[in-house]
Amino acid sequence: MKEVVRQCSLVVRKELLHLWRGKARLVATGAFAFANLVVFSFAGGLHGEAMRTNAAGFLWVGILLASTLALGESFRVEVQNQALEAMVLLPVHPAAIFYGKAIGNFVLLSLVGAVMVPCSIVLFDAVPVGGLGRLFLTIPFGAAAISAPGTMHAALSCRARSRDVLLPLLLFPLVVPGLVAAVQATQLCFLGDAMGEYGSWLTVLAAYCVVQWGLGGLLFSHIVEE
Amino acid sequence: MMGVVTEPWPFVWSAYGATVVLIGGYLVSLWVRSRSTGGGDEQA
Amino acid sequence: MTLGMRVSGGVAVLLWVLGMAAGLTLAPPEEHMSDLVRIMFVHVPVAWAAMATFTVALVASVGWLATHRWGWDHLLDASLEVGVLLGVLLSVQGSVWGYPTWGTWWTWDPRLTSVAVMVLSFLGILALRAFVDEPEKRASWSAAASILAWGSVPFTYFCVKVMNSLHQKQTPWGAMHPDMLKALLLNTATITLLTVWMLMARYQLARTELRRELGT
Question: pTM score, two decimals?
Fold first, then answer.
C-alpha cells in the first residue's frame, strides 16, 4: 500500500513535469475550451438572458469537449513509446499508474476550468450571484468527475483502432451524472441559490467521483496487464 | 394534443410494429450471421 | 445453428407472435381506458427483459475478469448487443406511448434517461469491441468498461429524478383488470423466452467467431 502511494506520487510528478514541459498542450486545451465557449455564444443566438441561464451548461460542455483532446493526448505519448507496458513490467502497480495519470489529468482540467470561469462570466454576462468562491470550488469536483473515467477510457481507446471517435463515444454517456451534478451546482453559483441546494449537488458530484475513482483503481490492472 | 386521444390505434400499431421490426430484424441478422460463419455449433 | 436451437427459436417466435396477438385483441375492460393501454403489454415486458439483459452484462463482465473463461466473454458479447436492441426498442415504444399520453415524444424522466444513457454506453462498448483486434484485450477492456458504465447508472437515475422533481409527476395507470394482467404476464413470458433464445444464439455466434479468430 505504502509502495503504491510512493509509486503513484512518482507518476504524478512525471505527469506534472510532462505538463510543465509541454505547456503547449495546456495552452492548446485552454484555447480549444475557449473556442467552444465562443461558438456556444453564437449557438445561443447572442441572447443575453438565454446565455446567462445556459452559462453553466456551456462552461461544462466546453470543458468536456476540451478534455477529450487532453485525455487522448496524455496517452498518445505513452503508447508511442510503449511506456504503459514498460511501467507495468518495472513493476509499477497498475493502480499507481491510474491514479498518477488521473491526478495529472485532474490538475490539467482544473486549470483549464479555472481559466474558463472568468471567460464565461465575461462572454455570457453571467455575474456569479451565488458566489465566486463556490464557483471555483465546483471546478475541481467537476474536473475530477471527468478525469477518472476519462483516464480509464483514454487508456482503452488509445490502443484501439479509430481512437479519436472511440474516446468521446465511451466517455460521454459515462459522465452524464457527473455533468448533470456539476452543471446544476454551477448554475446555482451563476443564478443564485435561493433554496440552498448547492451542498446537495456538490455531495452527489463528490459521491460520483468516489465511485468512479474507486472503480478506476480496481479495474485499471485489467486493462494494462497481458 | 395534450393527453386527449381521439385515435389510439395508430399509436398501438406503431408500438407493435416497432417491436416486430426491431426484434424480427435482429432475428434475421442472427440467422444470416450464423449461416455465414458456417453453422455456429460443434456438430457442424 | 443446431436443430435444437432452430426448433426452440421457431417455438419462441411463434409464442411471441401469439402473445402480441393476445395483447392486440384482449379487450380493455373499461371504456375510459383507451386502447393505448395495449402498448403496455409489449412495453413492460421489454423493459423487464432489457433490465435483465443489462444485468447479465454486468455479471458476465465480473465473471470474465474473475475467471478469464471465454464463456463469460461470449455472454458479455451477446448481452451487450441484445441489451442495445431491447433498450432502443424500449425507448421507441416509450415515445409512442408518451406522445398521446403525456403530449410529448420524450421527457427527461429518470427511467427514460437511465435507459438511454445505458444504451449509449453499451453502443460505445460494442464499438470498442469492434476496434480491438486481440481477443484477450477486447474481453478485459469491454468488461471493465461495462462495470464502469454500471457504476454510473444509479447516479444518472438519481440526478435526473432530483432535477425533474420540481417539474412534473407521472400519472399512475390505476388498478389492473384480470384480462390485462393475463395479457401482460403472457407477453412477459414470451418476451423473456425470446430474449433468452437470442442471448443463446448470439453466444454461440460469438463462440464460433472466436474459434475462427484463434484458428482452432
Answer: 0.88
